[in-house]
Amino acid sequence: MSTHVWTPGAAGPLDEFVQRLTRMITAFASENDLEQAEVRIELVDGSLYTIATTSAEPGFGFFSFVAHREESDEPRKLIVPIGAVRSIELSAPDVESSFGFVPAE
């Protein structure tokens, strides 16, 4: 049995975190008969992002995500410490939006 306790903000099993998050998103979409779910991440500074994908990279307590963007916006990938996440919200996509979360292949 492991004697290590992982807490948010510390380097931990980020691959497992992203895999479990992706499973939760997929299950939420399936349970609610949605083609895709909308996923929003709020960071402790109050910034809110609707995300397209997540990745456990680069690791060492950090993970990354790609925020949805308008066609005129520049591409953007954010790398944040896991402890910077205040909340993750899953919902049905806004009917006026044409995007949702895409699980990594």
Shape: globular
Question: Which percent band covers the strand fraction?
Answer: 25-35%
Radius of gyration: 14 Å
The overall strand count is: 5
Distance between the termini: 31 Å
Task: Report the order of strands and helices.
Answer: HEEEEE
* Helix-strand category: alpha+beta
Low-confidence stretches: none
Give me the number of helical elements.
1
Output mean pLDDT: 83
Question: What is the helix content?
Answer: 10-25%
Strand order, sheet with most strands: 4-3-2-1-5
How would you sum up the major sheet?
A: 5 strands, antiparallel
What topology emerges from the helices and strands here?
Blueprint: H1 14-31, E1 38-43, E2 48-59, E3 62-67, E4 77-81, E5 85-91
Antiparallel strand pairs: 1-2, 1-5, 2-3, 3-4
Question: What does the model show?
Answer:
The protein is globular and about 35 Å long. Helix content is 17%, strand content 34%. With 105 residues, the protein is of the alpha+beta class. The protein has a 5-stranded antiparallel sheet. It contains 1 helix and 5 strands; from the N terminus they run αβββββ. β2 and β3 form a beta hairpin.
Briefly summarize what is shown:
With 105 residues, the protein is an alpha+beta fold. Helices cover 17% and strands 34% of the residues.
